[in-house]
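Design job #97: recover the sequence.
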């Protein structure tokens, strides 16, 4: 029997003793500890090579997109200034955020291109608005607002609001632009102060001589009140646009119109749906 098992082992078969020995080796804790340490050290060396300064550096910036409003060199310079790290560690979102703060850049997308390039795609803004922070201080902080590419605005509008209301005033402005454009009116300025009083200045774009009119909204939703004005404007006021100087919307059941050249500045009250003369 012994000679038979030896013969089988010699033919490439494993004996019970050999199998047991291999199991002891596989389940030996020190072996796995050694393997784990080797793998960890290998990983550390690889990560060190990836993160080490001077390795896998970004050498080029490729700029894609139109350049009617935005200078490509300005885009590239801004991207270089925002770049920290190498090909693998560069924070692409940080670069994109830096780019969209440039006047005229509505959107920016940055991606890696092996082995040493960042590709930058720029979507230009349709128009640029000026925004001023009115936080009760003597000096107003100024910033740019890049408006969507489909904006059909001929003016450079001015927006004013406390810093906390910045997005609210931008959203209201974009809505008013779309709702008033059918009447040939553009928003020249939109402002809200610290106590929530809104004022809108409109300008005609259909008349040969541009005419401005001021809408005093007061507190409340400026979008709803300007929509109410637009409904009456379309029916009764459009032909008299050059004569309108100021509209006061701070009434529950109507608004007051102040006419140009009124001498004493007589104000007339108009209910929604009819206009007094």
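Job complete. Output follows.
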């Amino acid at each position: 029997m012994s000679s038979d098992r030896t013969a089988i082992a010699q033919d490439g078969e494993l004996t019970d003793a050999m199998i047991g020995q291999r199991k002891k080796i596989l389940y030996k804790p020190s072996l796995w500890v050694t393997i784990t340490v080797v793998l960890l050290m290998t990983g550390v060396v690889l990560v060190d090579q990836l993160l080490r300064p001077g390795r896998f550096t970004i050498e080029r910036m490729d700029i894609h997109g139109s350049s009617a409003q935005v200078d490509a060199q300005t885009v590239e310079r801004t991207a270089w200034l925002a770049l920290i790290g190498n090909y693998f560690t560069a924070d692409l979102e940080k670069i994109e955020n830096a780019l969209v703060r440039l006047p005229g850049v509505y959107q920016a997308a940055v991606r890696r291109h092996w082995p040493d390039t960042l590709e930058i795609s720029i979507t230009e803004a349709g128009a640029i608005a000026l925004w001023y922070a009115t936080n009760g201080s003597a000096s107003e902080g100024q910033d740019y607002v890049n408006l969507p590419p489909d904006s059909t605005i001929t003016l450079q509008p001015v927006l004013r609001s406390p810093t906390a209301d910045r997005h609210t005033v931008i959203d209201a402005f974009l809505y008013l632009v779309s709702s008033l454009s059918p009447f040939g009116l553009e928003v020249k300025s939109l402002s809200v102060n610290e106590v929530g009083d809104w004022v809108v200045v409109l300008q005609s774009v259909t008349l040969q001589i541009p005419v401005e009119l001021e809408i005093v909204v007061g507190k409340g939703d400026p979008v709803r009140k300007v929509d109410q004005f637009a409904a009456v404007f379309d029916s009764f006021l459009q032909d008299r646009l050059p004569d309108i100087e100021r509209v006061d919307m701070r009434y529950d059941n109507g608004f007051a119109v102040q006419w140009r050249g009124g001498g004493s500045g007589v104000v007339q009250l108009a209910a929604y749906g009819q206009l007094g003369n």
